[in-house]
Design goal:
Keywords: Bacterial flagellum biogenesis, Bacterial flagellum protein export, Cell membrane, Cell projection, Chemotaxis, Cilium, Flagellum, Membrane, Protein transport, Transport. The chain has 150 residues and is mainly alpha-helical. The chain has two helices and no strands.
């Protein structure tokens, strides 16, 4: 007789939920990385522009071009501020998804351990049945030999 766990569909469901939570975490991490890359690009753009402004102030640059570059630096500062907020939101989302995944992993583990315990119990019962069958066969043989010996 083969082991069949009555709650196997629940185990499968918990495994699928864990897999889905892993995908959600992976997506959240990808989004965080993208946001961080955009932030880094903005910071690099700002640093490059500041270098250009410093070079322009050392040479004979017009006041209007310096003002225009300064307005762009201010715009980049605003973009950096918004991107920092986006990065923080993405980090919160990653942490939320990690917590969710941990819960799903624990839930799956509980059901898998219950299945393993049920399988061990089944195997012990099968061994006991087999031993009882062997004992009964030995008793019948003994009784048959004892009946012939008389």
């Amino acid at each position: 007789m083969k082991f069949r766990y009555h709650f196997q569909k629940v185990c499968d469901l918990k495994s699928n939920e864990k897999t889905q939570a892993e995908w959600m975490l992976s997506t959240a991490i990808g989004k965080l990385q993208t946001e961080e890359e955009h932030l880094l690009q903005l910071l690099n753009d700002k640093n490059e522009l500041i270098q250009v402004i410093q070079t322009a102030t050392e040479s004979t640059a017009s006041v209007s071009s310096l003002q225009e570059m300064q307005r762009y630096v201010h715009h980049l500062d605003e973009c950096i501020s918004r991107k920092n907020t986006d990065v923080k939101h993405a980090q919160v989302n990653v942490e939320r998804n990690k917590t969710f995944l941990n819960g799903k992993m624990v839930d799956e583990k509980v059901w898998l351990e219950a299945r393993d315990k049920a399988k061990i119990k089944f195997q012990q019962e099968m061994l006991l049945r087999e031993q009882n069958d062997l004992d009964e066969m030995a008793t019948v043989r003994f009784a048959a030999k004892a009946g012939r010996a008389m």
